[in-house]
Amino acid sequence: MSNPQVETVTTGADKAKLAGAVVLLVAALVAFYALGKQGPWVQWGALIVLLAAAVGAFLTSESGKSLIAYGQDSVKEVRKVVWPTGKEARQMTLYVFAFVVVMALFLWLTDKTLEWVLYDLILGWKR
C-alpha cells in the first residue's frame, strides 16, 4: 500500500495569498449585503470586484497555479480524444434505445412469468 503525496501549503507567502483570498471572499459577501441600500449597481459592482480580487489572489498562489496547470493538461487530453461522428453517435443512441426496449420486455415477461408461477400455480390465488 503506497502513501499518496499530500500537497500542503508550505510557504508563508502562499498562506498569506490564500488567507487574503478568503478574506476578500468574505468581504465580497459582507459588502453585497451591507451596500443593499446603495442600489443594485453599487451592490453588484462591489461583489464582482471583490470576487475578482479573491480569484486573482487564489490564482497567484501555488494551489492556483497547480489548478491552472491541471486545467491546461485536461484541455490537452480532451483534444487527443477521437470523437464519434454524428452518424456514429446516432447509431449508438439507437442501439442503446433498442437494448433498453429489449431489456424492458425481458424484465416484464420475467415478472409476469414469476407472478403467474407464484400466485396462480403455487398459492392458487385467482385474480
From TrEMBL:
One of its GO terms (molecular function) is protein transmembrane transporter activity. Coiled coil: none annotated. InterPro entries: SecE_bac, SecE_sf, Translocase_SecE/Sec61-g. GO terms for biological process: intracellular protein transmembrane transport; protein secretion; protein targeting; protein transport by the Sec complex. The chain crosses the membrane at residues 18-35, 41-60, 92-110. GO terms for cellular component: plasma membrane. It is found in: Membrane. Pfam families: SecE (PF00584). The keyword GTP-binding does not apply. Keywords: Cell membrane, Membrane, Protein transport, Translocation, Transmembrane, Transmembrane helix, Transport. Belongs to the SecE/SEC61-gamma family. Essential subunit of the Sec protein translocation channel SecYEG. Clamps together the 2 halves of SecY. May contact the channel plug during translocation. Component of the Sec protein translocase complex. Heterotrimer consisting of SecY, SecE and SecG subunits. The heterotrimers can form oligomers, although 1 heterotrimer is thought to be able to translocate proteins. Interacts with the ribosome. Interacts with SecDF, and other proteins may be involved. Interacts with SecA. This is Protein translocase subunit SecE. It comes from Roseateles depolymerans. The lineage of its organism: Bacteria, Pseudomonadati, Pseudomonadota, Betaproteobacteria, Burkholderiales.
